[in-house]
Amino acid sequence: MSPTIAVLALQGAFIEHEQRLQSLGCTTIELRQAADLARPFDGLVLPGGESTVQAKLLHDLGMFEPLRQRIAEGLPTFGTCAGLILLADHFRTLAVTVRRNAYGRQLGSFHAKGRWEETQKAEKTRGMTDVADDLGARTALAAAPIPLTFIRAPRIEATGPGVQPLVTLNDTPVAVRYRNQIAVAFHPELDDDNRLYDAFLGLTERTY
Predict the structure, then answer these.
(1) Which of left, alpha, beta for 69 (phi over 0: left; psi -120 to 50: alpha)?
(2) Is 189 one of the catalytic residues?
(3) Tens of pLDDT along 44-94?
């Protein structure tokens, strides 16, 4: 059964996330008001945009504390750009220190290639040949650079215990995983690479 993913749709680049998730077979719902939180969902996406505006709207609409509590209790969550800032500085559920606009403002936006740090493992045994082929494909994918699009991006300045780098740029983490949360400084919804989405959807299959 495909997961249902809630996308915060108060401001920012939420439509692109919905389109990507739907292309991966997910059902998506939009969170626009407190009543939407009563709908069942398996994971949460916090999109890029203006983190200060998003935090204010969450407070004004009575959505901030319910979402913070659900994330703290283990709801799989994927935060991109402003979503990273929400998790680290507002919800304070992510054990990292971030600096806003560290990679430049709007005119300083850029593209780069990052290193994928996640170790992929075969999860099911279907026969030795299939497993070998699967591992070979996963190894090749893991070795491939991951495209990065930075737009007024925050920088991850420090990480706490238990934080795992998923993607690095010049040996600096730009995507991390911490328990039930994946947070990135860039915009994966703008590039044709699904590895971070796959890692996030993998969290919806676990219990925290």
Answers:
(1) alpha
(2) yes
(3) 999 999 999 999 999 999 999 999 999 999 999 999 999 999 999 999 999
